[in-house]
Amino acid sequence: MADVTRQRAGRIGRAILIFAALSAVPTAAYAQASITGTVRDASGAVLPGVTVEAASPALIERLRSAVTDGTGQYRIENLRPGAYTVTFTLPGFATVQREGIQLTGDFVASVNAELRVGTVEETVTVSGAAPVVDVQSTTRQTVLNRELLDTLPAATGHPGFLAALIPGVESSTPDVGGINGVGRGANNLSIHGGSGVQTQVQGLSMASANGSGNTGVMNLAAFQEMTIDTSGLGAEQKQGGVRMQFVPRDGGNTPSGSIVMAYANSSMQSDNFRQDLRDKGLGTPNALKKIWDINPAFGGPIRRNRLWYHSTFRYTGAANTVPMFLNKNAGNPNAWTYEPDTSHPVGTEDVWAQMNARLTWQATTRHKLGFAIDYAEEQTRPRTLTALTAPESTAPDYARLAPKRYLSTDWSAPMTNRVLFEGAVLKQDEYASRPAAGHNPFLPPGVALNSVLEQSNNLRYRASAGGGTNTGTTLSRTVFGRLSMSYITGAHALKVGFNYGTGNQRQRRISVDSPMDFRFNNGVPNRLTLRATPLDINTDIDADHGLFAQDRWTVKRLTLNAGLRYDYLHISYPETRVGPGEFAPDRNIVFPAADGVRWHTIAPRSGLSFDVFGDGKTALKVSVNKYFTAQAVGGPFGRDLAPSSSIVASSNRTWNDANRNFVPDCILMNPAANGECGAMDNPAFGTARRTLTIDPELLDGTGKQSSDWQLAAGVQRELLQGVSLDVSYFRTWSGNFLVTDDRAVGPSDYDTFSITAPVDPRLPGGGGYVISGLYDLKPAKFGVPADNVLTSADKYGKQIHHWNGVDVSLNARLSGSLLLNGGVSTGRNTTDNCEVVTKVDNPSPLYCGQQENFRTQVKFLGVYTVPRIDVQVSGSLQNTPGSQITASYVASLAEVQPSLGRPLAGGARNVTVDLIAPGTMYGARLNQIDLRIGKILRIGRIRATPTLDLYNLLNASTVLSQSNVYGPSWQQPQSILAARFAKVGLQLAF
After folding, report:
1. Cα–Cα distance for residue pair 760/291, rounded to 1 Å
2. CATH class of domain segment(s) 140-248
């Protein structure tokens, strides 16, 4: 134990040393916008040695400078968002000044100049529209600047909801005005068939050690802009997918402040609960109770041009009802049915309190430092209440997250006109607690019952599930850092850098109620599940480091972007003790410290951008990049490899409750069939016997992580002044597939059977078709201890997954009064693992090859200020595909046995079969329009904007989720788009 303590202290010490080292060097807010161009004389000859200065009030140092190289090119990197004036100076020539250059995100603004012979005192001011086409970068990026963040009818400020407004981005959790709850945002985002979501501040991930890249609520008042990258990410990033970056606000030389307030309640909501939804079985719609938001912010100088501050606080939350009622039988130990109390619909409440403070210090003329703290607390009451979870079954997620804390420091130093250093460190702590029995408000104190899952409709009721994977306490810590050096000439921008990452998680899993769950089918018991809780699982990320180099090289009209990234990941496990539990009374195991994966990855990045006509208005862009999936403590290579995870934590056994007393009349701890209970499907239950072995070849080496290659090719064109159109083709293909194979059995240990689908006009072809290629384990092999191995799918055959599609995007900024962004995205996934699945333990080829229908989405967002009357109108439109329709059919033994020729193995009374090929049937499309109207009032230095938001303007009632269990409840709505509601707000700026 002392050795483990010393190791932990060593890791903490190394983290502190690195944090201190990076903090000791000077710092500035992370941003990657650039200004570049070529300077010529009146004859067209290039001019080396021209001094180019970019000045902006967004810079605490006021201006940045560069000198043109031998090709007449210059480049100024790492510029914050804002308006810039660019000045060109060369002795013997008149000074040229270009105003109104607007920078956002990672945009590379091409600003060329022509100098004519003149006196030093002479200055020529050149007016012209700011460039809207980036002719050098291949990153596809959408920028939501401060104006858009302030004026869009954004749901709750959750970054996932904002990113979901971008064409091509898919979200699994549609939202109307934040009714889902601020902590339950769009966590599952994808783009162009690729996985991965990142939320970053200062270029560093805000992900917890658990690996969630989408962090929940952001205090938007703390940030100058949000950028959403969807393709062409450079070598600075390991992952692809959706990257959401936030640029902090520094404060500025002028004291300023703002207060944002918003409120809505149930009396401000319409009714979209149509009769056809009632007829389909929806008992009550998900509806608004209350939403509120209070968000003051203040900033300004402590010392002009030297020390700035910015601070903000946010208190926000949402309460709603879901399509679920109280259970009249809740807490009654003698009742085994769910009986809805239709007079008492239930709901959830999610509350966040968040504080952010930042200091920006121009320590010297070259060195800038930033320091920030962000502290948040969340409470959910309860978190997982849905149409499939009765209130008394939600106790595991009656949760509190406190604290969620970030400490960060950042640095930038332009040492010369050509050498730039940058660095940052971000430390996160997150503690989540979910109370044990006795804290459930839907059950009497001290009552601990068995949870029931009704197989006919997937409803869980009576008590919480005993799995405990989201119960108990979880403490996560991470430290991320970056350090880089850029060497910048006019034609080249070379950047090399290092990423640092460590973390750990301490998790305790408990069973809130009973560690034994039951499964019924139409009220008749047929299976029970035993749980071996409590369990402690502890994981350390010893190293998540990376090295990268990338260069942007411009030759005339052609810009080449090339990069290479190397990453190293090492995970280990400290000594852990697991004590006794209800169904493991004699357990007392001490697991020694152990090693986990040691992975090395190398990923190339490449891109080409061509200024077609040389006028900066048309760019041809192509990029091909490889990305690796992020790995944290979750998944098979994280917690699942922990020594304490080798405990067989659950076991199923069939249950024939012949006397209908709802008590398993058998010896539960006897693994063999006895009394009313069939044999345990895993007789090693409760013991430390690893049922999943990881192929050693996957644990150490190069290129073992799952990966995606992404190709993007398209044209971006300036159509009018301030208006650009982008048409691009995308292809994503994946590699390094994994497969789990139970080596204790093989394809020859299964018997094949088929069933006939029910006749139903809602099924493909009206139903009645034969579904073959189904397999059941031979009875002689049932109960044989599993010997699962996770290994590379390449050892079994070829497997593919690729996505192909096209995006058409429009971006417009007209006359300073109209902002418009949006477009159309269409594409589909193709997968095939038939060669693999026919060679593993269960060789069923059913649906092994799939090609989805094309899925098309249309999305737009915009802001318009009506001249003279100062009325702002903003809104967003989303037209997206409906949810996928599946049909899980519970086939009885009587339907299976004629084809199988025997009973099902283990005495099972039914088997579940999918009647519809995945990706072929979808529900009605979602059409959602959100609108905001605001009137700008000016009273001295105070600008007040009262606002009225209308969410789901058309009052659509699109079904968002429905029952996918085939039977009387099939396609019964479980949630719909929330009805139109109004939200009032007030924005004060001073």
Report:
1. 43
2. mainly beta
Kind of pairing between the strands at 95-103 and 123-126 = parallel
Locate all alpha helices (DSSP H) within 197-289, ordered by sequence.
275-279
Domain residue spans of the chain: 17-126, 140-248, 256-649+686-744+785-884+919-989, 750-776+885-918
Placement of tokens 């007030």 in the chain: 986
Measure the CA–CA gap between 519 and 528, rounded to whole angstroms.
Answer: 6
CA distances from 55 to 60, 93, 368 (A): 10, 20, 16
- Residues 82-129: tens digit of each pLDDT: 889 999 999 888 899 998 888 888 899 999 999 988 765 677 777 667
Amino acid at 382: P
Please name the residues in contact with 264: beta carbons below 8 A apart, sequence gap of 6 or more: 177, 288, 290, 291, 949, 981, 982, 983, 984
Mean pLDDT of 601-622: 94
Cβ(275)–Cβ(253) under 8 Å? no
- Does the domain made of 256-649+686-744+785-884+919-989 have the CATH classification 2.40.170.20? yes
Indicate whether 10 pLDDT > 50.
no
pTM score of the predicted model = 0.87
Please state whether beta strands 516-521 and 452-454 pair in parallel, antiparallel, or not at all (unpaired): parallel
The type of residue at 376 is: A
* Residue-level length of the chain: 990
- Residue among 23, 66, 71, 21 nearest 47 (CA): 71
10 Å CB burial of residue 770 (0-12, 13-18, 19+) is exposed
Virtual torsion, Cα 642, 647, 650, 651, nearest 10 deg: 130
CATH fold group of domain 17-126: Immunoglobulin-like (2.60.40)
| Radius of gyration of the chain measured on its C-alpha atoms | 30
Cis bond upstream, residue 403 (ω within 30): yes
What residues contact residue 795 under an 8 Å CB cut-off, 6+ apart? none
Distance CA 460, CA 445 (A): 20
Measuring CA to CA, which residue among 380, 374, 383 is closest to residue 352? Answer: 380
Distance CA 373, CA 842 (A): 52
Burial of 46 (0-12, 13-18, 19+ CB in 10 A): middle
Angstrom distance (rounded) from CA 518 to CA 664: 10
State yes or no: cis peptide before 382, omega within 30 of 0.
yes
Q: Flag whether pLDDT at 801 surpasses 90.
A: yes
Around Cβ 983, how many Cβ atoms within 10 Å?
24
- 3-state SS assignment for residue 160: helix
Strand partners, 228: 142, 244
From the centroid of its chain, how far is CA 732? Answer: 18
| Phi, psi angle pair for 794, to nearest 5° | -60, -25
- Token code pair at residue 709: 């290659």
Q: Which amino acid is at 524?
A: V
- Maximum CA pair distance of the chain? 106
Distance between CA 735 and CA 798 in Å, rounded? 10
Which residue is listed with tokens 């009313």?
676
Residue 6: in which H helix or E strand, if any? helix 2-24
- Whether 13 shows a pLDDT value over 90: the answer reads no
Q: What is the pLDDT of residue 693?
A: 85
Nearest-5° Cα angle at 25, 20 to 28: 110
In angstroms, the CA 745 to CA 138 distance is 50
The pLDDT, as a whole number, for residue 627 is 92
CB 350 within 8 A of CB 380: yes
Amino acid identity, residue 334? N
DSSP structural state of residue 701: E
Q: Which class for 502: exposed (0-12), middle (13-18), buried (19 or more C-beta within 10 A)?
A: buried
Residue 510 phi, psi dihedral angles, 5° rounding = -130, 170
Angle, CA 442 vertex, CA 438 and CA 448 arms, to 5°: 45
Question: What pLDDT, in 10s, does the model give residues 923-954?
Answer: 999 999 999 999 999 988 899 999 999 999 99
**Residues 188-222 pLDDT 10s:** 788 998 877 888 888 888 887 776 555 556 788 89
